[in-house]
Amino acid sequence: MHKKQIVVVAIVFAVMTCLFFMPVKGLIKAKEDAGHSKPAAAPSKPVTTVDVTMVSSASKILIGPALSAQINDTEARLKKAMDESDKLSLEKKLAKLWDDVNQPGPAAFYYQAVAEKENKFDEWVNAGSHFNDAYKRTQDTAAQPTFVINAIASYKNAVKLNSADLDAKTGLGIAYVNQTSSGITDPDGGSPMQGIMLLLDVVKQDPKNHNANLSLGLFAMKSGQYEKAVARFKTVIAQKAEAEPYFYLAESYKQLGQKKEAIDAYEKCKEMMSDPQFTQQIDQYIKELKN
Hints:
Elements: H1 3-21, E1 32-33, E2 36-37, H2 52-63, H3 65-80, H4 84-100, H5 104-118, H6 121-137, H7 144-161, H8 166-182, H9 192-205, H10 210-222, H11 226-239, H12 243-255, H13 259-271, H14 276-290
Antiparallel strand pairs: 1-2
């Protein structure tokens, strides 16, 4: 499988499945706060520790031996490296190599290792965003708690360095809400509701913020607030037309019984993806709405 194919497959996978395999169990219809439901607290449970070796092994199966060869070589060099500057250089290289094949899980661990050594704001945000992406992409319930915990920790370090940055606030807000699905609790008191409030604060300061609106739209869907979800996704699409928000927009319209609008959104989504399997699935959704 070539790198370009992996990227396409990953995008299709994310669009087609993350809505259904990323349940936000704590988001239920309750007393609304600024247009979003208040999440119920989830019981804490033991966290399974997943490390970079475990995540890398799983990713190598996905990308195949040909694309894994350079990664394996670089990993071997990292194990033998004695000088700290050499280790840092190899960790940066591994992060980039995993990014090139669109595998955010192992990339996140290496970006985190770099951030721990250099303690720069951009590096902590980069690590946090990759852990959030890894959480979104995986169906491995053993890995999800580790991704969430590391995302929260990375974004907290970023916020310490720049408390006003909206990207860091958005990422931390998303991670706080994600922890509900994993049944874990931030030991420092960060809660799903605090995550929602962080996201709402971001859109208050930047009403067109892409990531905050997309996430609030998804969380609104999971709590059954489809009209609010539609508004969020339309805000996202107005800034940049992409397949993922169009897919969620179509799903929201479908739940509201607005078949014509749902079909139009599905068609827009389909136009942006060339994958035959994706197109076939969208055509099936459209057929069901027309019947």
